[in-house]
Design goal:
With about 325 residues, the chain is α/β, with parallel strands linked by helices. The protein folds into 2 domains: about 210 residues, Rossmann fold (3-Layer(aba) Sandwich), CATH 3.40.50.1100; about 100 residues, 3-Layer(aba) Sandwich (Rossmann fold). The chain has 14 helices and 10 strands. Strands 1-2-10-7-8-9 form a 6-stranded mixed beta sheet, with helices on both faces. The protein has a 4-stranded parallel beta sheet with strand order 5-4-3-6, sandwiched between helices. The longest helix has 18 residues. Bound molecules: 4'-deoxy-4'-aminopyridoxal-5'-phosphate (PMP). 4'-deoxy-4'-aminopyridoxal-5'-phosphate binds next to helix 7.
Length: about 325
Amino acid sequence: MATHSQWGQVGNTPLLLLRQLSHLTGCHIWGKAEYLNPGGSVKDRAARGMITAAEQSGSLQPGGRIVEGTAGNTGIGLAHLGVERGYQVSIFMPNNQANEKVELLRALGVDLHLVAPCPFRDSAHFYHQARQFAETHPGSVWMDQFENPANAQIHYETTGPEIFQACPQIDFLTLASGTGGTIGGTSHFLKQQNPNIRVVLADPQGSALFRFVREGELKAEGSSITEGIGISRLTANFKRAVIDDALQIQDRDLIDMLFFVAQNEGLFLGTSSALNLCAAWQLGLAHRGSGKNIVTVLCDSGTRYASKLLNKDWLNQNGFNPNPGRIAET
Ligand code: PMP
């Protein structure tokens, strides 16, 4: 197949059956292989949706500058697509994210600003720095992935329909949330097709969303090594989600899952994908032997975090002693 752009290659990813997890639970556990997008993550969809909206509104002009604050993947998606379309790209990112993402952004030639992590209320937070930069640099457009409706909308228009077409008998959708774009758009679409589909938020420690869904209170406890997911405020994109329940997943469990799927499914995935699969597996165990269809998203590849996940010292320092066999024994 010949193609003139990566742009048209975003989305239409396969829905992959995780055969061993399905076998262990007696359910069908499916993962949407978003790591196959041109920029390597689910965030390519948001990048395409937000660039399209900015072009259509006229705010992004030829040769203009795309500005965004990101944990990395949105920046990588914006860089792949933005560079291809002739835009300049400025990215603000916390300095504690995996080095692979930083190096990739540098290789793509973006104007990269690494900032010290700080609370959202602090004006030095990457979110506010990105906005301020765009306001003071003419020709720049701040993407604002947290509040920009084009983020959830692209999942409503593409991810949701693709899942429903591939698996019309879907019983559960379980997803983590960063900006809320994926769960916002996908759950909205699927619930419209069939209100009986159960939507379950998968949340890491250190995020306030689990307590919010369960008890209506935004309260966070602990911390997580996951990147790009978990948040302590309600965003416009998250508010679009239609959610029935939430599960909180411990880092120790997702690390075991990460190596389980590497060794048993042949998939080396990032931490948010492993967290999503933990939630899918727990739902499968709760409905053991029922044959239910449980769908989640495989957001990016573990190679993006190799300096952490494949580094014994890093694993030790963070208190991990991966035990993938535990997944099979449960
Ligand atoms: N997984 C990874 C690896 C991500 O980078 C992100 C987005 N930051 C997500 C999941 C969550 O996606 P969303 O922003 O659509 O909630």
